Amino acid sequence: MAPLSQLPGVELPATFGEIDIYVFDQLLRGHFDQRPRVLDAGCGDGRNLMYLLRRGFTCFGIDRDPAAIDRLRACAAQLAPALPPTNFQAGEIDHLPWADASVDAVICSAVLHFASDEAHFDRLCSEMWRVLAVDGMFFARLASNIGIEDLVGAAGRCVLLPDGSERFVVDEALLLDATTRLGGQLLDPIKTTNVQRQRCMTTWCVRKP
């Protein structure tokens, strides 16, 4: 039996933190290898940034919860002390405090489904796209109606999901249209996980050409 510290269930979280498995997939496939400046939009306390901070990436984060940003700043001060605390900001994603083309990758995990309507969704996407540099990667994971259309109806609006949560839901057509309007190219096919018909979560990954 391996020592406790070498067990996969202990060793991997110690290395990668509580990273979203779909962000981890992008790491495994090399999509962050040439994209050293990473913004986590809706970062919470930074679970998707911990590995990147340890590896010397220039990380940024924004979240509407000031307490979560305080926790992230404290972690970043230990893991990447050269980064200024101002890289992590409390605020809204539709008013990002960073310049055009200032990051190489944007992570937006489980956030866009809090849009109030399709116009708000478009504003959020446009603002994240604005700060993304050429050849940058925009990664989003969000609720969709794909596979549960019969339970929740049409996309492009807020709906009550079978799991009891209210979310703005997308479908393939909406995401493809958004990709075109942004001027992007799909980096991966659109992928959806159906969680026993209680909710469906879709991964949308776009390159800025």
Question: Can you tell me about this structure?
Answer:
- With 209 residues, this protein is of the alpha/beta class.
- The chain has a domain at 20-44 and 92-207: Rossmann fold (3-Layer(aba) Sandwich), CATH 3.40.50.
- The chain is 31% helix and 28% strand.
- It contains 7 helices and 10 strands.
- Strands 1, 2, 3, 4, 5, 8, 9 and 10 form an 8-stranded mixed sheet that branches.
- Strand 1, helix 3 (50-54) and strand 2 (58-63) form a beta-alpha-beta unit.
- The longest helix is centred in the middle third of the chain and has 14 residues, at 66-79.
- The chain is globular and about 50 Å long.
- The mean pLDDT is 96.
Q: Secondary-structure map with pairings?
A:
Layout: H1 8-16, H2 21-28, E1 37-41, H3 50-54, E2 58-63, H4 66-79, E3 88-90, E4 103-109, H5 118-130, E5 132-144, H6 149-152, E6 157-160, E7 166-169, H7 172-182, E8 185-186, E9 191-195, E10 199-207
Parallel strand pairs: 1-2, 1-4, 2-3, 4-5
Antiparallel strand pairs: 5-10, 6-7, 8-10, 9-10
CATH topology category name of the domain at 20-44 and 92-207:
Rossmann fold
Q: Got a strand count? A: 10
Counting helices, strands and paired strands, the structural category is alpha/beta
Shape: globular
**Percent of residues in beta strands:** 25-35%
How do the helices and strands follow one another from N- to C-terminus? Answer: HHEHEHEEHEHEEHEEE
Largest sheet: 8 strands, mixed
Number of helices: 7
At the fourth level of CATH, the homologous superfamily of the domain at 20-44 and 92-207 is Vaccinia Virus protein VP39
State the helical fraction. 25-40%
Q: Mind telling me the CATH class of the domain at 20-44 and 92-207?
A: Alpha Beta
Distance between the termini: 49 Å
CATH architecture of the domain at 20-44 and 92-207: 3-Layer(aba) Sandwich
Mean pLDDT: 96
Oligomer class: single chain
What is the radius of gyration computed over CA atoms, rounded to a whole number of angstroms?
Answer: 17 Å
Question: Can you tell me the residue ranges where pLDDT is under 50 for at least 5 consecutive residues?
Answer: none
